[in-house]
Design brief:
Length: 378
């Protein structure tokens, strides 16, 4: 009886213990003659969560290695570039920042380029400065004009004295003048002028009263720079000019004892304006052509006064400008110029008066011109 009670107690105790342990422990408690399977021992050791399909990777055996070389960490952009182009060498790019002004504008505006500097020097200022200047000038001031056109009748007298008869003459007569100035700014203009004589003549032969027609022409084209000493219409002003100047005398091609001449060169001029009031201004000028080129043209006779020459031209002028409005002015002008030419060597043709060919011929030609004209501006 005691044995049966003891057996039942042990059995009940074993049942309760097996209900509180995991399956692996239950396997260990099993009885039997066979040795437990090794795979069965681990079958209930771990719990597999639903949805977890990870597989275990074998851990490699530790290998003794030298410490790896620690390289500096590269920026992320460089790493991405290297990963996309592994064969491209590392390149160092220097980024130069463009200097900026105080208001953030690009640095190219800090210092004007050469073209802009030359333009401002020639025109007398930047477009903004000229617009600001014209805003202060009276609306009827001729400085507001972009174009000036002039026409004038004139009377001239020319006298040429020389120790060589072919270069001596005196004549005079009427003529006309045309002029134009295009003002790119109130201070700078491109100018051109032309004048021509009408119905003038000179003696054709020594000791004869016969005369031959002669035609005088004057041409100029160049640049003008004007500077006013103030913005009022009473302000004095100075005009500087650099022009190509050419003077010609033409006679008929069948003239037997007269020749043609031409003098050309760079003319430097200066004009001063002194306003008496807004309606009238005195004008004084002067000019010089320091190294002019002089040539003699053949007619029925080919005369050369020498082998080489040195020619200089100087002149002065005085006049007045009556301003009725910026579009309408009347002007008068009296100008006198002297052209001096010295030849080297002997002339190639004998003088009709002496019968010999002179050496060192000199020619002095004085020309006076009076003009009264009208100028239209816009």
């Amino acid at each position: 009886m005691v044995k049966h009670l003891l057996f039942l107690a042990l059995s009940l105790n074993g049942f309760l213990a097996s209900a509180q342990i995991d399956p692996t422990s239950a396997i260990l408690l099993r009885g039997g003659s066979q040795a437990p399977d090794k795979t069965q021992l681990d079958r209930g050791r771990y719990t597999i969560r639903p949805g977890d399909n990870r597989t275990s990777t074998p851990v490699p055996a530790p290998v003794n290695k030298l410490p790896a070389k620690i390289e500096p960490k590269r920026p992320a952009a460089a790493s991405e570039s290297k990963s996309t182009s592994p064969s491209a060498p590392d390149m160092k790019i220097d980024v130069v920042e463009t200097p900026k002004t105080a208001d953030g504008a690009p640095g190219s505006n800090v210092e004007k380029n050469v073209t802009v500097q030359v333009r401002d020097a020639v025109l007398g200022g930047s477009p903004e400065e000229m617009a600001h200047y014209l805003g202060k000038v009276h609306e009827e001031d001729p400085r507001q004009n972009l174009l000036d056109l002039s026409v004038a009748p004139m009377f001239f007298y020319s006298d040429s004295s020389s120790n060589y008869w072919y270069r001596s003459y005196s004549t005079g007569g009427p003529g006309f003048q045309l002029g134009a100035r295009i003002w790119a700014s109130p201070f700078f203009a491109i100018s051109a002028s032309f004048a021509n004589s009408l119905e003038s003549s000179i003696y054709s032969q020594p000791g004869s009263r016969d005369r031959v027609a002669i035609d005088f022409s004057w041409f100029e084209a160049g640049l003008k720079w004007r500077n006013y000493f103030g913005v009022s219409r009473h302000s004095n002003y100075v005009t500087l000019g650099v022009d190509f100047s050419e003077t010609k005398t033409n006679v008929p091609p069948n003239a037997t004892d007269r020749i043609r001449t031409k003098t050309s060169g760079v003319k430097l001029s200066l004009e001063i304006g002194i306003p008496r009031d807004p309606e009238f201004a005195w004008q004084f000028g002067g000019w010089i052509t320091p190294r002019a080129e002089h040539s003699e043209g053949a007619t029925a006779i080919s005369v050369k006064s020498g082998t080489k020459d040195e020619t200089t031209v100087v002149g002065i002028s005085v006049g007045g400008l009556h301003t009725m409005s910026r579009r309408s002015q009347i002007f008068w002008n009296f100008a006198h110029s002297v052209e001096r030419t010295l030849f080297k060597g002997a002339a190639n043709t004998a003088d009709p008066n002496t019968g010999s060919s002179p050496s060192g011929v000199s020619v002095t030609t004085g020309t006076s011109i009076f003009s009264l004209g009208y100028r239209w501006g816009n």
